Amino acid sequence: MKRHHTHTPAQGGETCIALIDARFLAWLQGQGEQNAPQNRAQLFAAVANALAHAGMEAQLRRIYWYTDNLEEPVFDGQINRMVQPHAVDGGVSMLRALGSDLQRLAERQACDHLVIGSDDERLLGLIDEAQLHGLGVHLLADEAARHMGQLQRDDPGWARLLAQADQRLVLGARAAQGPRHAGAPGHAMPAFDAQATRESLGTVITAWWSEEPEDLREDLREELQNSRGIPQEVDRQLLLAARRVLDRALSFHEKKLMREMVRETVLGLQPQVDPSTPALAE
Q1: Which element (helix H / strand E) includes 50?
Q2: Which residue would you say has higher pLDDT here, 64 or 152?
Q3: Which of 184, 173, 204, 22 is nearest to 97 (CA)?
Q4: Same domain, yes or no, for 22 and 143?
Q5: Residue 144's pLDDT band (boundaries 50, 70, 90)?
Q6: What is the pLDDT of residue 31?
Q7: Do 97 and 122 contact (CB within 8 A), yes or no?
Q8: Which residues pair with 47 in a beta bridge?
Q9: pLDDT at position 175, please?
Q10: Which domain range does residue 210 map to?
Q11: Are 54 and 141 within one domain?
């Protein structure tokens, strides 16, 4: 197996170890996060830059990479952890592997900081334990982390996990830029046209809903009746499908509309269109 030499981990000072779910990183890439690493060779530098942009001087020593791909390459400073595909066990093996590493690193105080790349809310207790052991725990996130109030309404589970972090690290973000809407690097996002967007997203949502078996439809109806957001798995699936259709990531307003349309479809609601809302430039 060929080993790739991509960096030499720095020595001395405060140290950091990252634990990253490959599936979660793929979701970040699908979101169109600026400068999100497009391959493993860029990952170490991307995480180190995220730490630096957050004002942290911790030296990234190692990355643990949780994947179901047997063909993953080997990189210096990156250790592969094989897990079951999410479709097989709902992420249980990934949760156990990442959670076990997180717990052992915290108990042994093997580093000063941990960076977690996962949106699995079941990690909350382990993150809290690591913090009680004196470690700083930081979560990789998308641009929604800049708008926590909105995120608490749209995706309360993801918001709870992010709120537990000492810092939320947006890959590629620059401290001086402030909030922005995600888009492909070097390209401005188009103006938001609610009607045109609704038509484009309607194709994606209709195709998804037509393929859902009736028992899952009933479960989803029950869940949405008691929640203002939509499940993370559904959200990720549709964001990736919409990206393929539009050939770009969705803007903040488009994501919000997509989630509203999912609720309308699942619960059989009438579309809520506000004619007074102007087109908003991104």
Answers
A1: helix 43-53
A2: 64
A3: 22
A4: yes
A5: confident
A6: 58
A7: no
A8: none
A9: 34
A10: 194-267
A11: yes
Q: Which tokens in the block code for residue 225?
A: 């009746």
CB contact at 8 A, 205 and 230: no
pTM passes above 0.70: no
Contacts of 260 (CB under 8 A, 6+ apart): 272
Residues 182, 144 contacting (CB under 8 angstroms): no
Instruction: Give me the amino acid identity at 211.
Output: E
- Say whether both 250 and 159 belong to one domain: no
Q: Two tokens at 13?
A: 């000072």
Give the chain's domain count. Answer: 2
Instruction: Read off the pLDDT band of 240 (50, 70, 90).
Output: confident
Residue 212, helix vs strand vs coil: coil
Residue-level pLDDT at 38:
62
Tally of CA atoms within 13 A in the half-sphere of 123 that contains its CB: 35
The β-bridge partners of 79 are 64
Same domain? For 156 and 210 the reply is no
**Domain identity same for 109 and 222:** no
